[in-house]
Write a structure and sequence with these properties.
Layout: H1 3-13, H2 21-27, E1 35-37, H3 40-46, H4 56-61, E2 64-73, E3 79-84, H5 89-99, E4 107-109, E5 112-125, H6 154-170, H7 174-187, H8 192-204, H9 208-221, H10 226-238, H11 242-255, H12 260-272, H13 276-289, H14 294-306, H15 310-320, H16 330-343, H17 347-365, H18 372-384, H19 388-401, H20 405-419
Parallel strand pairs: 1-5
Antiparallel strand pairs: 2-3, 2-5, 4-5
């Protein structure tokens, strides 16, 4: 089974929540920096330059609304992208104009520059008698009779619950965040970001039934949304429902027809479902869209092995190893090549491939622990090559890093058989 196929689950989703450590590390690279979430209050507290929304139109037309502007803040602290996601359409351009001028200090997490996303709330009040340009958390003003002139509308209350939920999520208070986000949806069923945030939390907590339920509700509200399609497809695959995952991923491909990663995931799901010709077709299309695509070549090689097209498999595997920087799954590719060479009685080449994989995993351990599954597969490859000592060494390393009860039992059984215990 190609480990690269597991990697591709995450790529179509656009998350690191389900990703192996290698993918998380890659996601923090300068070319694809990591991103953290901040709430409205956090964005306002940390901003170094603020411009509040002009209230002129709101006052002239006596309009009251909260406009939410979803931001992506670049590594330099400037707004990289801004999209108005809620509020009266006539006021959105004014909020966008203000939001784009805001600035923040560069964000560093663990010594690594990161981007920031979040929704900045701009409150427009046509009832204000002054020229106040209160864009966010300006307090409610009482009129002469002591009543609240700017009482919260359901839309405003929903936005505040969303903001509160994101803040709780950032603090790791997931049960409280779930309650706040669910309340936001109750107040405003069209608040897409609340569905997305709930899905993110359920994903992190591995509450897959809840994740699929909220994504299904999201799709009912926002038909064709690639965010919910991608999450549903990945979650169905993770829970072993590959045929259903394929159906959902095909819907995603129809939306993201030019996305090579969407095709990689489609190939992955077909592979696990045993549809190897379909895996070849999807991986080939992914490569057509982006040739610098080692995961697609990896998956292509694995499918060719299943189809007994061994020469084609070797060509695909070699191509996967050619890319710089080195593909995270290179050790797995080499292990699969070792098994392929061994099956065709090319033991010298099989030993060379296994040795390269072993060295690569040793180099990787200097940066962090290798995946137990990969070490176990290296041991299996050496065992097939009658290199018992090397097999035992790989299995012992896998056992020392494995926290999986079932995996630990399996590894111990292999070690007992190899050492005659």
């Amino acid at each position: 089974m190609s480990r690269g196929l597991v990697f591709s689950f995450v790529l179509s989703v656009g998350l690191v929540l389900l990703a192996p450590v290698a993918l998380i590390a890659r996601g923090i690279g300068q070319d694809n920096p990591a991103m953290i979430r901040k709430s409205d209050s956090q964005l306002r507290a940390s901003a170094t330059y603020k411009v509040e929304a002009d209230q002129t139109i709101a006052k002239q037309a006596r309009l009251n609304s909260v406009v939410g502007v979803k931001l992506v803040i670049g590594l330099d602290g400037h707004v990289e992208a801004a999209t108005a996601v809620s509020g009266l359409p006539v006021l959105r351009d004014w909020a966008l104009s203000a939001a784009r001028a805001w600035q923040w200090p560069p964000m560093i997490v663990g010594g690594v520059p990161v981007k920031v996303s979040g929704t900045l709330l701009f409150r427009f009040s046509g009832d204000q008698s002054d020229d106040g340009r209160d864009g966010g958390d300006g307090g409610t003003k009482n009129d002469k009779k002591g009543g609240a002139a700017n009482s919260r509308s359901p839309l405003e209350a929903a936005q505040e619950q969303l903001d509160f939920g994101i803040a709780l999520e950032n603090d790791g208070k997931y049960p409280e965040a779930i309650q706040a986000l669910q309340k936001a949806i109750t107040l405003n069923g069209d608040l897409k970001e609340a569905y997305v945030e709930l899905a993110s939390i359920f994903d992190r907590l591995r509450r897959y039934d809840d994740l699929m339920q909220i994504c299904t509700r999201g799709l009912e509200k926002f038909p064709g949304s690639d965010q919910f399609l991608a999450r549903l497809a990945a979650t169905l695959a993770i829970t072993g429902k590959y045929e259903e995952a394929i159906v959902m991923q095909k819907r995603l491909v129809a939306v993201r027809a030019d996305d090579p990663d969407a095709y990689v995931s489609l190939g992955s799901f077909n592979y696990y479902a045993g549809h190897y010709k379909e895996t070849v077709a999807a991986a080939t299309e992914s490569i057509r869209l982006r040739d610098a695509n080692p995961m697609a070549y990896h998956d292509l090689g694995a499918a060719y092995v299943k189809l007994d097209r061994l020469d084609d498999a070797l060509k695909a595997y070699r191509r996967a190893l050619e890319f710089k920087p080195q593909y995270e799954g290179s050790a797995e590719v080499l292990i699969e090549m070792a098994n392929l060479y061994n099956s065709t009685k090319r033991q010298r080449e099989a030993l060379d491939a296994a040795g390269q994989a072993e060295q690569l995993l040793a180099d990787t351990r200097q940066r962090g622990p290798a995946t137990p599954t990969v070490l176990e597969r290296l041991g299996d490859a050496y065992n097939k090559l009658d290199k018992r000592d090397k097999a035992v060494s790989a299995w012992q390393k896998a056992l020392s890093t494995s926290a999986d009860g079932e995996g630990a039992t399996r590894l111990q059984s292999k070690l007992n058989a190899a050492t005659g215990r």
